[in-house]
Amino acid sequence: MEPDPIKLLKVQAQVELDRLEAQATAREVASKSIGKQALAWIFLLVLVGVGSSFMLAPEALAPVIGLVATATMALIQMVSGIVTETKKEEKPEVAIIRELIARLDQREPPMRVDVADGKVTVSKGDDKVTTGA
């Protein structure tokens, strides 16, 4: 009995989709998750604010609305921070390692150190430095 070609195609498509999702960065995964849920949470916070205006005494309303507005703005900022792509600065040690790796292929003239009569002469290519004691 041969497998159903449509079921086989569905399984292959699901495997490919899972592979693509596994390759997603943390930012992409977080963006998708927040994109699916953030609007519902913002709407819920607005409903809490509106509902509290009907149920609470006027003197208690200002702090509650302030908290709801602060929570809503914080959620919007988090969504904006995750969705907005910013280029991270590379750590200095990583930059130094990359530079050293790039220098490995370069040929530099050999360094030579001569010590004579209390004087040290360091030569590298056309550069020459002499120190005396």
Break the fold down into its secondary structure elements and pairings:
Elements: H1 5-22, H2 26-55, H3 58-83, H4 92-104, E1 111-116, E2 119-124, E3 127-132
Antiparallel strand pairs: 1-2, 2-3
What do you see in this structure?
The chain is an alpha+beta fold and 133 residues long. The protein has a domain at 5-86. The protein is 65% helix and 14% strand. It contains four helices and three strands. The protein has helices spanning 5-22, 26-55, 58-83, 92-104, and strands spanning 111-116, 119-124, 127-132. A three-stranded antiparallel β-sheet has the order 1-2-3, with no helix packed on it. β1 and β2 form a beta hairpin. α2 (26-55) packs antiparallel against α3 (58-83). The radius of gyration is 33 Å and the shape is flat. The mean pLDDT is 80.
Provide a brief overview of the structure.
By secondary structure, the protein is α+β, with helices and mostly antiparallel strands.
N to C succession of SSEs: HHHHEEE
C-alpha end-to-end distance: 94 Å
- Which whole number gives the mean pLDDT? 80
Please tell me how large the radius of gyration is.
33 Å
Q: Using DSSP, what is the number of strands?
A: 3
Counting helices, strands and paired strands, the structural category is alpha+beta
Features:
133 residues; alpha+beta; 3-stranded antiparallel beta sheet; 4 helices; 3 strands; 65% helix; flat
